[in-house]
Design a protein that fits this description.
The protein is mostly beta strands. The protein has 1 helix and 6 strands. A hairpin with a 2-residue loop joins β5 and β6.
């Protein structure tokens, strides 16, 4: 007998405060959504969490917490879709196959 679990994702409203000297750019609004992804890499299955962050006027960014068995110096990676595909904007570079597996899972769960 198998039992499956489902976790409801929720949007969270965040208020971002910027201490810029220009008072016209002091605050911005962001929303974040946390969800689980599952992916396969090198014949092993992995499950982890992703946080999608939307800032006003910017493209979405995805914070991915990497499983410890895949950790190569950085537990977290910030990813972003760009015209040519996905790129790591913060964190250690990822193997191309791992990046493809993670981003495909993000696209499926989003």
């Amino acid at each position: 007998m198998s039992i499956s679990a489902y976790q409801q994702t929720a949007d969270v409203q965040l208020k971002v405060v910027n201490n810029a000297p220009d008072t016209r750019v002091n605050t911005g609004v962001a929303s974040a959504k946390i969800f689980n992804i599952s992916f396969s890499y090198l014949k092993k299955a992995y499950r982890t969490k992703v946080m999608k962050v939307l800032y006003a006027g910017r493209d979405a960014m995805y914070k991915v917490v990497m499983p410890s068995s895949l950790n190569e110096g950085s537990y977290m990676h910030w990813l972003q879709r760009q015209d040519e595909g996905w790129v790591v904007i913060l964190g250690e570079p990822m193997d191309a196959k791992l990046l493809k597996a993670v981003t495909t899972a993000i696209g499926t769960q989003e």
